[in-house]
Amino acid sequence: MDGISPRHPRAESLRIRKRIADGFDRGLVVAEGLAAHGRGEAFDYLLGERTTREAKRAIRAAAAALVLAEKPVISVNGNTAALVPEGLVELARVAGAKLEVNLFHGSREREMAIARWLHRHGAGEVLGVDPKFSTRIREIHSHRRKVDKRGIAAADVVLVPLEDGDRTEALKRLGKRVIAVDLNPMSRTARAADITIVDNIVRAMPLLIAAVRSLSRLPQKRVEKIFGDFDNSSNLRSTLRLMLARLRRLAAGSLR
Ligand code: PTJ
Fold first, then answer.
1. How far apart are CA 49 and CA 119, in angstroms?
2. Which residues have CB under 6 Å of ligand 1?
3. CATH superfamily for domain 53-241
């Protein structure tokens, strides 16, 4: 029981908010993560809190990139761990990807808490917490530069949900394919990634898992075509147009 009435018009949004608040109480989410979540909620409101056709297209392309990858890694921060722990573990399993804890607001304690949380939800190996395998990516100018030699440092495809900015550009410069999940289609991350899923991670994660499962059964050539046909800039433009149209409708209703 979460104490949220199913009849509340924004029940789902409140349930998601509660997961972030619980994550904060457990020491998984940093205080800044609560603010980041609020920013996400505002963009989600403009999307109509639904998975758009554009997001579904990006999810399919992201699944293709994961299926084609040789060394895929899922980067996990505090917010993502609090919101979709089971999804992260299941995605890693179906995509043959590694899970790596990588934090913007670095803290050993929180790294360990997130790794324990993922183990509790069925994760096998969790990278990013053993100093023996730690290395630095010089191009990244935040605590996120600390990566695992067996994980992000060696990866060809990196999934970066709820990202903060300069890392995507740095990973791209290092020749990696980057998949972002970000409700803000105008963010630097959204624009720099190869594939940006503009959707709430809570809704996108099960769809991404299902898409990886289904594309894993297709011949490689077809998966390559799905990846190759995807155009991130045009998909982002189309998402922005959707948001603007909804904003105009909402504003017209309020100003009447
Ligand atoms: O746990 P840490 O230390 O790694 O810190 C994580 C945060 C999220 C605090 C850090 O990465 C950060 O400051 O991120 P930003 O710069 O606030 O960017 C987060 C982006 O994620 C914003 O564009 C939000 O709109 C978006 N976002 C927030 N919640 C969601 C989301 N996107 C998808 N699903 C969400 N639920």
1. 30
2. 30, 32-33, 36-37, 39-40, 43, 77-79, 83, 103-105, 162-165, 181-184, 187, 200-201
3. Phosphopantoate/pantothenate synthetase (3.40.50.12640)
